[in-house]
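Go through this fold for my students:
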Amino acid sequence: MIYGIVDGLFASNFVGKSAFTAINLIMPFIIILGAIGLMFGAGGSALVAKTIGEGEREKANRIFSLLVCFIVCSSILCTVIGEIFLPQIAVLLGANEETYEYCMLYERIAPCSLTFSMLQNTFQVFFVVAEKAKLGLIITVCAGLTNIVLDALFVLAFKWGGGLVGTAVATSASQVVGSVIPIVYFLSKNNSLLRFAKPVWNIKALLKTCANGSSEFLTNISSSVVTLLYNFQLLKLVGNDGVAAFGLINYIATIFMVVMLSVVRLLSLSLWSKK
């Protein structure tokens, strides 16, 4: 969530209103694609954790490896389709004369890191299964800090593509950090419950993963779909100014939502530990 906020912060303050509007038009589409990785992460983690609990560690590692390979292949396919139909997608999302070029600039780069984005979402969940939740948090924080630092460097110092290209490259680089480090970790010998093994095709495991993770997938894309619908109506009624204002409100709401979720989880953990 912070990735979108940071990009919007730099775009709105240092690139311009049209660039900020373009990000808000494109971001729901990118989030929907990234939610596929979260679906496999949430759904697959339940299956892998169950398999570990049954004492079949090697089978769990094979399922884990299969899911990661499947995510890489599906994300590459989505990237190719997205790049081919990029102009049509930009227009479909509401890009107009003021925002079309900005949408094209941002969306040419952002989908290229889709594989890393999906993997990052997946590994965040699997670190919990591997009993390395703290390590997952550290990697996530490092990725977020990478995004902030590179945004400042690429937008303020280098001004790549007028600044907007800098925001997309910074986000992509941070997602590389958030996905490559876990890949190296799970490839090497470690003291966690998971590591990469030779994947074996298992259609049953893939279907169970999709079924288990469908609720998380729908939850994540629902807000993006609502945002898209709002964008369409605001463009008709107010224009780009309406989308920019709604994007700002969404950022503020996101910050409060993250805080609320954290508080609720802390309270739940406290009650559970007392019992």
In short: Residues 19 and 81 are 24 Å apart (CA to CA). The chain has a mean pLDDT of 86.
